[in-house]
Amino acid sequence: MSKTINTGQTVAIIGAGLSGLRCASLLVEAGFSVSVFEKSRGTGGRLSSSRLGNLTTDLGVPFIETQSDDLNNWLAGHPDTVQRWLPYQTDFSLSEPKQLADRQLWVGVPRSSMLTRLLATGVSLHTETRVSVIWPDRNGILLRDEHAEVLGHFDKVVIAAPAPQAVPLLDALQSYQAKANAIKMLPAWVLSVELEERPASLANIDLIEGDHPNGVGQEFSRILRDSSKPGRSGEIWTLQASTEWSEAYLNLSGETVMHELIASLVAMTGDPIKATNYRAHRWLYCDAQAPDDIDALWDADKAIGVCGEWLAGGGVDGAWKSGSALAQMILSSE
What we know:
Elements: E1 10-14, H1 18-29, E2 33-37, E3 49-52, E4 55-58, H2 69-76, E5 82-85, E6 88-90, E7 98-99, E8 105-108, H3 113-119, E9 124-126, E10 131-137, E11 140-145, E12 150-154, E13 156-159, H4 163-166, H5 174-181, E14 184-195, E15 207-209, E16 220-225, E17 236-241, H6 243-248, H7 254-269, E18 275-289, E19 296-299, E20 304-307, H8 315-332
Parallel strand pairs: 1-2, 1-13, 2-9, 6-15, 13-20
Antiparallel strand pairs: 3-4, 5-8, 6-7, 10-11, 11-12, 14-17, 14-18, 15-16, 16-17, 19-20
Helix pairs in contact: 1-8
């Protein structure tokens, strides 16, 4: 998208995940002044990363595997920030791992959050700011934070938050609010753990996903060695619990989740495992069950739009497609 409008118009985007920042980057390119408001401490959403001891770990999407030519081309065009990952992978039987070169897995270097930081170039980023009110008035579209403090008036507003978080922000557009309210989001516990040493049974394995023969490892949807990714070091592993396990144990403490999932890993591998650091994160809105595929929502009269993976089929592809689609809708309405 190369159309330049140079309107000087202001746009507020709520949410600094992939969808919101993809939309933001295209609008900045077209000449809009874009402010992004994020309730967390940094960019990323489910592409976020976190410190773990002296190292970092990816807490959400462990890699990008896309069917989108547009996203693939963008990833390939930033070799200093994004690289291919060729892990040795197997299923939960832990049978002989294979390196499948035909899978295109992309990772941020040295961490996933670098992808969204790259997309945030040129935006005014406001972190640890929770928007609670979006309302059109005679001065534009008013934003207030959770303390009722005014964040400013904007010409256009984009809501790029998970469906349940978008619902209270859509009082001015009740038809959109109803769409967001109809979305079911599925949770996932993710445990990033630094181990004292690599388990012997996983010595040649970087990625475990797929079949659970005889129920082996059914607590997990995926296990991977984060330290095997390009630009990483140490002995950090990521254990993503299955949807069923996460729903059953949604309200456990992070410490309990750590002990439970490590115990399950020991039972699966038969190896003694000692964790030296861990970070457990409960993703309440990990996957979306969308009723239809509509890419994005844009009300040109109220100048308020919505984007997110939950509108466009889910996953990284859905997030990218939705943010791109909403930017195009906004530009086409000029």
